[in-house]
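Design review, sub-item: ligand-bound model
Attendees: FS, YL, KQ
YL presented the inputs for the 6-O-phosphono-beta-D-fructofuranose complex:
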Amino acid sequence: MKTIGVLTSGGDAPGMNAAIRAVVRTAIYNKVRVLGIKRGFNGLIRGEIEEMDVASVGEIIHRGGTILHTARCEEFKTEEGLKKAYNIIKIFGIDGIIVIGGDGSFRGARDLSKFGVPVVGIPGTIDNDIACTDFTIGFDTAVNTVLDALNKIRDTVTSHERVNIIEVMGRNAGDIALYAGLSGGAEDIIVPEIPFNVDNVCRILIEGKNRGKVSYILIVAEGTKNSFQLAKEVEEKTGLEVRVTVLGHIQRGGSPTAADRILASRMGAHAVKLLLSGKSNRVVAIRGSQIVDYDIDEALSMKKEFDHEMYELAKILSI
Ligand code: F6P
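KQ shared the predicted structure:
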């Protein structure tokens, strides 16, 4: 293995830069060349590739986003797109590719591996929706961003004695909602993994009010119910004043937390070591405190478990 390519793909996540830095510096330390591929699989198809050195990843460990830029690539899902990418890989003499992204990106990597290209995936997404790993790079930062917003919203919600519905990202996963909800003491957490009905939500609010509560935060994960529709129904059924805050892409930015930087550094270094030891078609993961790796097909076939125990705890503690 003389030359490794690295790219970021899908939605960006804080800590991706720390992962790129770890890949580049671990490879160079082991006398391996690194090529940075810009704009995910789009850049691979188009040959948007440049050599990276130790200095090119200086001053980035603390920065959100990704210096390589990122994109979602429809063309890569086609045989023609894959063939174009394979040609570029041959032209640039790339011996293995590290893909930092979510499971859509891993599917792309897996398809590329069928051409005989060694690939390793590093889970980078705020959603924490990759089954083989306890945590993905960017999740901790996103949760802290939501928590910071929640704390601020709590101030004004209490002053006005209102309900605030905070809509968070997560695609089809409720982890951002769950972790931010538990750590922020939300009155209720609505996630795609657990069926809910508006009457139950209203009952929680009314019971709280009867016990003297004056502020109510509901965390709603995207992919459940339209927050504005929910607000209207809650207002009608409880008589409480309701506001909605959709946090949106603010959750994808910001300086990564220490936890994300450490996770990214460990995963990036592990990915390089896998390629250097001749292993390929792997996804790096963290289980407990251990960095491990899985076969890419196995990783893609695993089903993400929602933490029902934590969800129940959040319910109990928010009475
Ligand atoms: O996967 C990360 C994520 O931020 C999801 O939480 C969200 O559903 C989606 O990406 C938003 O994508 P886009 O950046 O294309 O709006």
